[in-house]
Amino acid sequence: MRVVMFGYQTWGHRTLQALLESEHEVVLVVTHPKSDHAYEKIWSDSVADLAEQHGVPVLLRNRPGDEELMMRLKEADPDLIVANNWRTWIPPEIFNLPRHGTLNVHDSLLPKYAGFSPIIWALIAGESEVGVTAHMMDEELDAGDIVLQRAVPVGPDDTATDLFHRTVDLIGPIVQESLDLIASGEAKFTPQDRTKASFFHKRSLEDSAIDWTWPAEDLERFVRAQSDPYPNAFTFYKGERVRVLKASVSKGVYGGTPGRVFIPEGDGVVIVAGAGARFGRDHGLVVERVRTEDGRDLPAREVFRTMGGYLTDRP
Prior knowledge:
With 315 residues, the protein is α/β, with parallel strands linked by helices. Helix content is 25%, strand content 28%. It has helices at residues 9-20, 47-53, 67-76, 92-95, 118-125, 160-184, 216-224, 300-303; strands spanning 2-7, 25-31, 58-60, 80-84, 102-106, 114-115, 129-136, 146-153, 199-200, 234-237, 240-253, 261-265, 268-271, 283-291, 297-299, 311-312. The strands form three sheets. It has a seven-stranded mixed sheet, with helices on both faces. Strands 10, 11, 12, 13, 14, 15 and 16 form a seven-stranded antiparallel sheet that branches. Strands 6-9 form a two-stranded parallel ribbon. α4 links the parallel β4 and β5 (102-106). α1 packs parallel to α6. The mean pLDDT is 97.
């Protein structure tokens, strides 16, 4: 088949690599210009550079749909468009243009976690598995019929970085197998159960602020979900931002006001957590390693040297 690819960052790069290694012909690549957004500066393997290395024409666009792009797409005469991590809406006049439509590759187990940063949101929510879905694009974002889906389990100590590496390794096989099924006419298009759908927004700095009224079990996942190189979970101590790099659930139950710097335990310092803490019902969060505003990674005990005081979500 003749294939046009829309994509960005490492997800798009892996997709394009799979297409280039397949028996299909990549005739045009459309990708975004480089961005200064925090989440777009990581996992930033260049789709444009890879395409140019292989002599594939490249167009840079923030949004599709202009006259030049439409002309180039029609000239490319694609049998299929393949998209992965394209950050803006693709209109019907584009996704319906190819003979076989448009295949979108999304790093969640659709219909859950449509939208942005699905691995981070899924880990925060305590999902037992994450994965990658190849589905046909329609007018509703991440809602089209599923061609293939693969899952990987979430372990008790997994970070978002761990899960990124496992899921990104699924992209190549899923892309190649999906294209072969579509080309051969053997693809089975399974409608999504929309009663199970969820949609998540793009993450921003505000989404990383720790809310100490959450139970410690949820906060421990919240920290793991924002592992380097992602922006870390953070709190404020004596007016200074402190990023939490490693934490665990306390062995003891500690009552009091959420956010209180309470007592040393194990390798860290217990912070009172949970809405039930005032009634002695919740475990605390043992903060073990932090990053200070000046970029130093330190044991929490070197930062919280005296017990008392509070961690807050504002300076």
